[in-house]
Model the fold of this input.
Amino acid sequence: MLLRFLKLYPLYFSLCLLPLVGIVIDMIFDNLGADPVQALHIRLGDWSLRLLWLTLFITPLQKITQWRGMAQYRKLLGLYTFFYASLHVIVYLWLDQGLAWAAITTDIIESSYIWFGVTAYLIILALAVTTPKAMVKLLGKNWKKLHRYIYIASGAVIIHYYWQLKGNMAEPLFYLIILSLLLLFRLAVWFKNRQFTKMMIPTTRKIRVVKADAVRVDQTLAGRSKGIVIEEIDSDIET
Amino acid sequence: MIIKTHKSIPSSEITDPAVFKQRRQLIKAMLALGITGSGIYSGFADATVVNWQNVPKGYQPKAPLTATSADIAKNHTNYYEFSFNKTDSTTLAQVLPIDPWSVEIAGEVEQPGVYHLEDLLSQQTLQEYIYRFRCVEAWSMVVPWIGFPLASLLKKVKPLSGAQFVQFTTLFDPKSMPNQADNRMLEWPYVEGLRMDEAMHPLTILATGMYGDALPKQNGAPLRLVVPWKYGFKSIKAIVKIELLKRAPLSTWSKSAPNDYGFYANVNPDVPHPRWSQSSERVLGAGFFTPRRKTELFNGYGDEVAGLYSNMDLRHFF
Ligand code: HEM
Done:
C-alpha cells in the first residue's frame, strides 16, 4: 500500500495544480464572465474550501483503512489549501481592492463575512508555518492541539461562505453536512478511545491518582499506545 | 405586440423590408436551433412600427455615462424566479410567454382596470435613459434603458388623493418560472413598492427596451421598473400589477429578511448591509486591473433625489 501511494505522489501533486491551470486558461481566453475579478476570486475561494475538506478526509480515511503513509497526503493537501487561500486573499487585496488600504479596512470592518475568512486564513497560515519537521519537533505535543484548529478554520469558512449569500444556502449546506460527518467521525473515535482507556486503568488506582502520578501512568502506557490515547488519559485523570 | 414610439411614425423610421426579412430569417434560424421561443420576436412579424434605434434621449441629469457592453447586461441578471445563477437565467427565461401581456392597475385610482400593454404603451413616448445600475451585491453597470416615466403612466390613470404608495407585482407563472414552482427561497410572486413621490420622480421609469432593442426576457420583458438611485432589487421585472395604496406595501425582500433589506433600499455607501460593506462596487466590464469604484450616495443621483429624504435618518430608513 505504502509503495503504491509513494509512487502516486507526483500524480497527486500535479492534480492539485489542475484547478489553477483551468483558471489561468479561462483568464487567458477571457472566459471568466461579466465580472472576471470576482469570478477569479470566487474560484480560488472554492478550491481552497474543497482542498481544506479533502485535507480533513485523510485522517478518517487512514483510521478506516489502516493504510500507512497517509500523513504526506494530508500535508500535501493542507499546503495546497494554504496555497489557494493565499491566492484568494492576494486577488482580493490586489486585483479587487487595488491595494487601497483605507478602502480595504472599511470593507473588512463592515463585512462580517470577511471576518470569518480572515479568521480561517490566519489559522491556515499558522498551520502552514508549523508544517516543517523542525516545527513539529519544536511544538511537541502542542503541535497536534494546534492542528486541531483546522476544524475551527473549517467552521469559519462555512460562515464566510454562507454570510455573503442572499439566502441560497444549498452549497454551503452541502459542505456543512460533510464537515459535520467528519467531526462526528472524529468524536466517535475519540469516544471509543476514551472507553478503551477507562478499561485500561484499574479503577482503584484511578481514584487515588494525583497529578504527580499522572506522569507515571503516562509513562507506563507510552510504550503500548500512541500519543492521542495518552492525552486522553491526562485529561481523564486531571478532572 | 405593436409598440409605438411616436403617435405617427414617419416612413423613414419604418423598418426597411430587407432588414425585416433578414430578421425573420435570423429568427427562423434561432427557432430551428431551439434558441428562442417565439415570444419576443413575434413582435417583429407585424410590428413594422417598432423602431428601437433612434429613440430620443430622456431626462439625463448627469454627464452621459458610458454604457456597459450589452453582452454583459444581457447575461448578468438576478432573476430568482428562474435561477439563482446570473447567467443561467438568460436561457431559462426564454420560455416566458410575454405576448400578449396585460397590466392590472388597481387601488386608489380613478381608472382602475386591466390594460393591454400595447394600449398603455401607445399613450407613451419611448425615450432612452442611460442610468447606472447598482446591485445590493456591490456590483454596478451602466444600462441604456428605453422606456417612459412611471409618472406619465400614473397621471393617465389618475391617482386619488389617498394614494400614498405604489405596489408592483411580478408575473406568477410557475409553469415557466421553476423557482416559483418549487416555492424556493422567496415568497412568490415578487412584490416591490415605492412611495408616491418616488414613483412620480422623473428619474423613475418603466422600461420596455434597452440597448436600442426590445427588452430581453431575462432583463424583465416586457415591462420593468427602473429606479436608478435604489439598489437593483427595487427595479422589479415582468410587471403584471400596479396598485396604488394608502399604506406602505411590504416588499418581498423586506418580508423575507427585514434586517437586511429595508423598504427604501437607497444606494448608500455609509449604510452597510448587515453582512457586507456597501462602500464600494465592482464595475462590470471594467477589466482585470481596474479596482473597485467608490459607491456614491443615491448612486450619484443625489442632486435630484436627496430632497425626497431630507428629514429622514437614512440609517434607520435603509
Ligand atoms: C483574509 C482572508 C480572506 C478574505 C479577505 C476573503 C475574502 C472573500 C471575499 C471578499 C469573498 C466574496 C467574493 C464575492 O462574492 O465577491 C470571498 C468568498 C469566498 N471565500 Fe474568502 N476570503 C478570505 C479567506 C478565505 C479562506 C481561508 C477560504 C477557504 C479556505 C475562503 C473561501 C471562500 C469561499 C468558498 C468563497 C465563496 C465563493 C463562492 O461564492 O462560491 N476565503 N472571500
